[in-house]
Amino acid sequence: MQQSSQAETTSAPTLPESNVLATSQDAQASKNTQAPSALSGNRFLIILSLVALYFLWGTTYLAMRIGLLGFPPFLMAGIRFLLAGSILYTVLRVRGSAAPSRAQWMASVLIGILLLAIGNGGIVFAEQWVSTGLASVGVAAVPLWTALFAGLLGRWPTRLECMGLGLGFIGVIILNLGNGVWGNPLGAIALLLAPMGWALGSVLSYRVSLPRGMMSSAAEMLAGGVVLVIISLGLRERAPNLTIAPSLWAIAFLAIFGSLVAFSAYGYLLRHVRPTLATSYAYVNPMVAVGLGALFAGENLTPLEIVAILITLSGVVLVTIGRTRLR
């Protein structure tokens, strides 16, 4: 959850894109108050954003684990988003973008708390006890919670999307058979709450008045980063160990690729596609995490895991197809 969350060419994850690409100014003006019913942006940028989320956010679980070697969880996440948000906000202001209004800052604080403090912060917190692959599994619940929250607000998934969601969730479950999620209660609770926060923030982002374009991501990262640092201070987390170089490089990677690039791409998707497609990365990230484990940690893929990957990808395909169709 790493996480989260909207990483600006848009708002997350999530990775860089062009920001105001709606088909008309009217569509742009309403993007924060009504979820798109079909693909409304540049299809190439939508595909590029999805690819960025699928693979870049999949690598952030390993990066967060490395970052924890020298930093406590909430402080590390706070530094990551403050750094990325500050850079993006400064660049946008220099280029002439308007500063968010008071109402937009308040909305950004709300979404930043849900996506970044609860969503990403919960994942980083859980990674103190659970493996990176298992942490990525918690994110698999994001599309399901998103579908539930969106449905409660009047937008239930289509039948094809429901089939894709079910397949994706089954694939992730199979992928992690035998892993003890409840081996540590604190980690398990964090993995339960994190996707709920991220999903609710994703759905509410359509209904609040956020800044336009990439400024939305910048404001959310700044707000979420501040809240995470406040949480760190309130919990009296340990002081960071700045002598561990890999942790510093990990935070730099998370800030640039996990936040500036990926979180921005996520924001773009939230403005131009329906929530189910925007959150479909949650089914691919675990497989990227497993693949990294096989490459860098000597873990081998079993036949069962290969089957799980194929099932999961099939679910993502169904969700993608369902997204392109109007109800």
Tell me what the structure shows.
This protein is mainly α and 327 residues long. It has one domain. The protein contains 13 helices and no strands. The chain has helices at 25-29, 43-67, 73-94, 102-126, 132-138, 142-152, 159-175, 185-204, 214-235, 245-272, 275-278, 281-296, 303-323. The protein is globular and about 50 Å long.
Describe this protein with a few key phrases.
single chain; 327 residues; mainly alpha; 13 helices; disordered N terminus
Distance between the termini: 30 Å
Rg from alpha-carbon coordinates: 18 Å
Work out the number of β strands: 0
The global form is: globular
As for the number of domains, it is: 1
Report the mean per-residue pLDDT as an integer: 78
Tally of helical segments: 13
- Unreliable residue stretches: 2-35
H/E topology pattern? HHHHHHHHHHHHH
Strand content: under 5%
Helix content: 55-70%
In this structure, how is the largest beta sheet organized?
none
Strand-pairing-aware structural class: mainly alpha
